[in-house]
Design brief:
Distance between the termini of chain C: 40 Å
Oligomer: heterotrimer
Largest sheet of chain A: 8 strands, mixed
Structural class of chain A: alpha/beta
Largest sheet of chain C: 2 strands, antiparallel
Structural class of chain C: mainly alpha
Shape of chain A: elongated
Number of strands of chain C: 2
Mean pLDDT of chain A: 90
Strand order of the largest sheet of chain C: 1-2
Shape of chain C: globular
Largest interface: A-C, 44 and 49 residues
Distance between the termini of chain A: 65 Å
Order of helices and strands of chain C: HHHHEEHHHHHHH
């Protein structure tokens, strides 16, 4: 199942509350009753379009009788409230009921059909309803419809006489109830089953989802508030006319749906308001009004098929990118001294082809060099404990990956993938004047380390990884190499809520403490696109080359995992084919978690040191052998 | 080299946003035939579809008989993730132009045109042969007697093998300078397989270059001069016919001992 | 029912069926070739009527009938091609092309209809019928306009049928309709063939419009009803083959004529639709349809 946190755990709730508050106080501030009317219509359209989005966008059912369900609501209200004298409020609720019943009827022929045939049959069905309404003129008033329908009242208070304030709030309440309903339904078993059927029908059926039941329930769920909205619409305008079946209304609703973005629920809400206001604004231009709106719809659907919802997402991304970039810039200047104190190494900014990269380098060029590569959403200071204890014997270099720490954000399409990270590592090493070195990579950094070694542009004398499962076939092995849990999903999630930030930092490094506070605060700086694109671009990496490198065994290689790493599938890692692995297999740091070098630094440093010395010996041996070989051939 | 017919340089592609194959280099000289061997699901078919222009390449160049098949210049940035770039960018390769240049692709499991008769299908295929002469109808009939027998039947009544033959026949009528055959013997009975194999050999002997994809090394050996190994979305090896190992050895080369 | 009434109803049904066939042919042609529904077909019909009026009316260019029809066809063919390149081609390769095509063609028809309003104004117009009077044939009275309609339908259906069967572009169109990918690989110019299909569809819509313009008053929204009728015919007949909606058109025409007689003018459509839903329940691919679409 896709990781899908509830609304109150994301930033979405705040936006909805602001919008709701604005709509609540709007009629209190602005007096113009005509514009209230426009907004009331927008409420109705939003309800109908979002409900339609549930069956069409989520369920993938091209149900073109949705507009007829709306008309069913209208006529239910008209007949019940006017002809039969049922109390209007009850008639509104009944509108939802009849619409759901009609939806059940419609679902019968639809159950056996797919794709375009659903469009055809539902069009036919709505035409049938239309002609029944037209023909049965003794009840429905035929082509002339029904007028002077009863208005809504609360006690003695008549909603038609208060400058539309009453209807405004009823409409708003219906819209809110409808959105809550759809939110709950999409997250329910039914909603998930509908999406599963749309995405992979046969697999879903094989997993025990009943197609017939899910389809009819989906149609009924999408009908309830459509019918209620129809009844409300009739109570508001006080007429019921067969125009509701017309192509004009279908066009309007379908364009709200598509301009908003299908399968999003919230997109059509935005589109309903935008299109209503735009159409109102253009209403003085006669025929040009419709031409301009139709042209705008075509332009949006053709050039920007994700619709307004996608635009909102892109806007959000732009804001987030600006924020993280500004944060990085600010920290680059202000907190440099604190960072240098932590690592004990000088920090400098290196300009590369992929933006400015912050490098920490202890700089003793006579000692053997050791490059540290940090993991997803971390920074070079994560290794400060290694900087402190290993810098006596080694020259330690670490840098912030693009989009992380105090490096620049990168171009997501180009920069945020493992191959380019390795390229940047090469640039950093070239700048440090290092051609021969040991490399340690953690998690995402582990893949960068493997890629760097496999590229072979620098001479890697020792290669160690932690928290990384080497991959042979992507994406299949990604599932094998890791224990699936929700925190792993966070690794590729673009935006973190506060809670997710805490969760991710906890499981990836350490629970918040004075020691690890900087890692938690660094997480807020990470460019969300770096996570997203790193995951989506996994398949551009030449994984077989990494595997060949590992099984060739030319480079001394060590795996130093935390024994309690919550992400790794240790059995998978142990099963792989390594040509030259230190001590014959992956070594566990007892009690270490995903970042053993951080929460078990002493044990880890000892192990790493031991590996580095062994690797040095090994490469000295190899060199002697090659030298010996050379002498014999001579 | 002047006698290079097909030159592929650094071709990469896939289905947005997933890259399927990358940096493929390939050279076929005049009269040479090559085979591509590799496991299923590793991007061979996507590569061929890109080569014949059905899918737009992401990067790289394709030259055919000295003519550039792709439009020059880089594939533009796709920075706005939700923008429909297909609506504004011209395609980098045009399947029509490629087919008319004589690079004819006979796709895998070709269903052809179910409601057209065999003879109508062959007539449609002539469209590509604008400035060259393709195979004549009686040559086709001599090559595939089964096709001749069933010329007035609709394609949908043909068996899989017959359909494959019509498919190749249509390719030959379209006046190919090079023929791409994607798993022509997939799912066929051994007898039909042999017939088809013999026919492809006959075609080969006329000097036509063939790019042949197949899972059967013994079949490949009869047709091709050079074998390319294709796995994980790239070409991982190249060998001449005389150094070709058997199927088992090839699989070991691709996947190691425990494939 | 005496035989004379039955014959009259039968004649009415055939004429109605011919009218429906005329409306549905273009829609069916686009569907079988491109696999999308062109909801601008009704607007094409209205546009055709106005263009024909512009060429033929004595208030406008006052051309004789044959050149007027010829120019109308020409204009409509071009319009169809242009509409294809503007409204369909840009997203042809997307997976949700069917749904997007519905909204772009609906929006396109809104543009055309409002454009008609802007250019020719809201005043109702009518094209002068160039034949009038009646003819009696074997006991059936046929208005000249009805004969014209039957001839028109016959010519169009024969013309398209022959075109598809015996000409190179026609054959190529059938090939593209049946397997786009294979057709591309053999070097067929798919966009051009699609544009031709759209053009032909618009051409038939234009002829339908010019005919409807002679028997009814024209207004910009006049296409909505024929569009619905055409959709119904295509749905009922089955969407798999170009020819099946044509049979369906006559079945529906006869059914409608008889149910008007049996149930009255008001209830006839509802009865018709009810029958249709029942048919679709039993045979969802349509009365004459198959699950695969072919031209």
């Amino acid at each position: 199942m896709r990781y899908d946190p509830p609304l109150h755990k994301t930033q979405g709730l705040a936006a909805i509350m602001i919008a709701l508050a604005a709509l609540l106080i709007y009629p209190l501030i602005f007096e113009a009753t005509y514009f209230r009317h426009v907004i009331i219509l927008a409420f109705v359209f939003a309800i109908v379009a979002t409900s339609w989005d549930f069956s069409l966008g989520y369920g993938g059912l091209f149900n073109f009788s949705h507009v007829a369900l709306f008309a069913v609501g209208i006529y239910t209200y008209a007949i019940l409230a006017k002809t039969l004298g049922v109390p209007p409020w009850l008639a509104i609720v009944a509108g939802g009921g009849t619409a759901a019943l009609v939806a059940l009827l419609i679902s019968i022929p639809v159950l056996r059909l797919d794709g375009i045939y659903v469009i055809l049959v539902t069009i036919a069905f709505s035409q049938l309803i239309y002609f029944v309404v037209i023909s049965w003129s003794s009840v429905t008033g035929g082509t002339s419809g029904m007028v002077t329908l009863p208005t809504l009242t609360i006690g003695e208070y008549r909603l038609s006489r208060d400058g539309r304030i009453g209807y405004y709030y009823v409409g708003l309440a219906l819209l809110a109830a409808n959105l809550l309903f759809l939110y709950l339904v999409t997250r329910s078993r039914l909603g998930r089953a509908a999406v599963a059927l749309k995405d992979n029908k046969y697999y879903a059926i094989a997993r025990g989802i009943s197609e017939a039941r899910t389809r009819s329930q989906t149609l009924m769920a999408s009908a309830v508030f459509t019918g209620i909205a129809g009844a409300y619409y009739a109570a508001y305008l006080r007429v019921a006319s067969p125009d509701a079946f017309g192509l004009g209304f279908l066009t309007l609703l379908l364009s709200i749906l598509l301009v908003g973005g299908t399968g999003t629920i919230w997109g059509p809400v935005i589109a309903a308001f935008s299109i209503s206001v735009l159409s109102e604004w253009l209403s003085g231009f006669g025929a040009w009004q419709n031409i301009v709106i139709a042209a705008a719809i075509i332009l949006i659907v053709v050039f920007y098929p994700g619709g307004l919802w996608a635009a909102v997402q892109e806007l959000r991304e732009a804001v987030d990118t600006t924020r993280t970039a500004a944060l990085a810039r600010w920290r680059r200047g202000r907190q440099k001294a604190a960072r240098e104190e932590l690592t004990g190494a000088a920090e400098r900014i290196l300009t590369t082809a992929h933006g400015r990269i912050a490098v920490a380098d202890t700089g003793d060029s006579e000692k053997p060099a050791l490059l540290f590569l940090h993991g997803n959403s971390a920074c070079k200071e994560a290794f400060y404990k290694q900087f402190r204890s290993l810098s006596d014997t080694h020259r330690i270099i670490a840098f912030d990956l693009p989009g992380h720490g105090v490096s620049d954000n990168g171009d997501p399409e180009i920069t945020y993938n493992i191959a380019v990270y390795a390229e940047i590592a090469e640039a950093v090493l070239a700048d440090c004047g290092v051609r021969r070195l040991g490399v340690f990579g953690w998690s995402l950094g582990g893949y960068v380390a493997l890629e760097l070694a496999a590229r072979g542009n620098v001479e890697v004398t020792a290669l160690a990884i932690t928290g990384t499962s080497p991959l042979a076939v992507v994406p299949e092995d990604f599932g094998h190499g890791y224990n699936p849990n929700s925190h792993l999903v966070l690794a590729g999630k673009q935006y973190f809520s506060r809670e997710e930030t805490r969760n991710y930092a906890n499981s990836a490094t350490a629970p918040i403490s004075q020691d690890s506070a900087f890692l938690h605060s660094n997480l807020k700086r990470t460019d969300g696109r770096a996570r997203l694109y790193m995951i989506t671009k996994l398949n551009v990496i030449d994984w077989p080359r990494q595997m060949r490198m590992l099984s060739d065994g030319k480079i001394p290689f060590a795996i130093l995992n935390g024994s309690d790493d919550p992400f790794l599938n240790h059995a998978y890692i142990a099963r792989l084919n390594y040509g030259n692995i230190w001590r014959g297999g992956p070594q566990d740091i007892p009690g270490g978690r995903h970042a053993p070098f951080f929460n078990k630094p002493d044990e880890f440093n000892l192990a790493l040191y031991a590996f580095l010395s062994d690797a040095e010996k090994m490469s000295a041996d190899t060199e002697r052998q090659t030298a010996a070989g050379r002498t014999t051939t001579q | 080299m002047s006698d290079v017919v097909l030159e592929v340089r650094g071709l990469s592609g896939g289905y947005e946003p997933t890259q399927i194959f990358r940096d493929v280099d390939l050279e076929v000289t005049a009269g040479e035939s090559i085979g591509i061997f590799g496991p299923n699901g590793h991007g061979k078919t996507t590569f061929l579809k890109t080569l014949s222009g059905l899918i737009d390449p992401w990067a790289g160049d394709v030259f055919f008989t000295g003519m550039r098949l792709n439009r020059e210049g880089q594939r533009g940035s796709r920075k706005w993730r939700n923008f429909n770039y297909d609506a504004v960018t011209r395609r980098r390769m045009d399947p029509k132009q490629i087919a008319r240049a004589g690079l004819i692709h006979v796709p895998q499991g070709n269903l052809l045109f179910p409601e057209l008769t065999v003879i109508e299908t062959l007539a449609v295929a002539e469209t590509a042969a604008t400035d060259r002469r393709g195979w004549a109808l009686d040559e086709i009939h001599a090559l595939f007697p089964r096709v001749a027998e069933r010329r007035n039947h609709k394609i949908r009544f043909l068996s899989g093998g017959e359909r494959q033959m019509v498919s190749i026949a249509a390719g030959l009528i379209a006046a190919p300078r090079m023929l791409i055959l994607d798993e022509p013997t997939l799912g066929l009975s051994p007898r039909i397989r042999q017939e088809l194999c013999a026919a492809i050999r006959t075609v080969r002997e006329t000097g036509l270059s063939i790019i042949l994809i197949d899972q059967d090394v013994a079949f490949l050996e009869q047709i091709i001069d050079t074998l390319y190994l294709f796995d994980h979305g790239r070409i991982s090896g190249r060998m001449e016919r005389d150094e070709m190992p058997d199927h088992e050895a090839l699989m070991v080369m691709l996947f190691g001992e425990r494939h | 029912m005496d035989p004379e009434t039955a014959l009259a109803i039968f004649k009415g049904g055939i004429v109605l069926g011919a009218l429906y066939a005329l409306m549905a042919t273009g829609l069916s042609l686009v569907w079988t070739t491109l696999g999308i529904f062109n909801f601008a077909h009704g607007a094409f019909i209205a546009l055709g009527a106005y263009v024909a009026w512009q060429f033929s009316s004595s208030d406008a260019m006052a051309l004789p009938i044959l050149p007027a029809v010829f120019f109308t066809c020409f204009v409509m063919f071009a319009v169809g091609g242009i509409i294809y390149f503007l409204l369909v081609k840009p997203f042809e390769r997307r997976a949700d092309v069917v749904l997007i095509a519905v909204i772009t063609t609906l929006a396109g028809s809104a543009i055309i209809e409002n454009g008609l309003l802007l250019i020719w104004g809201p005043r109702a117009k009518q094209i002068q019928p160039f034949l009038s009077g009646e003819l009696e044939l074997a006991g059936i009275r046929l208005a000249m306009s009805e004969i014209l309609l039957l001839c028109l339908v016959l010519i169009i259906l024969l013309g398209i049928g022959l075109f598809l069967r015996y000409t190179r572009p026609g054959r190529a169109m059938r090939a593209v309709a049946q397997n786009r990918e294979s057709a591309q690989l053999l070097g067929l110019d798919v966009p051009r063939l699609y544009a031709i299909a759209f053009g032909l569809s618009a051409l038939t819509a234009g002829l339908a419009g010019s005919f409807v313009g002679t028997i009814r008053f024209m207004n910009p929204a006049m296409g909505a009803e024929p569009l619905m009728k055409a959709l119904i015919v295509v749905i009922f007949g089955g969407v798999a083959r170009f020819s099946s909606p044509i049979y369906a058109a006559f079945v529906i025409g006869l059914l409608e004529a008889f149910s008007i007689y049996a149930f009255g003018l008001y209830w006839a459509p509802a009865v018709l639709f009810f029958t249709m839903i029942v048919v679709l329940l039993v045979k969802p691919e349509g009365l004459f349809g198959r699950y695969q679409r072919t031209l």
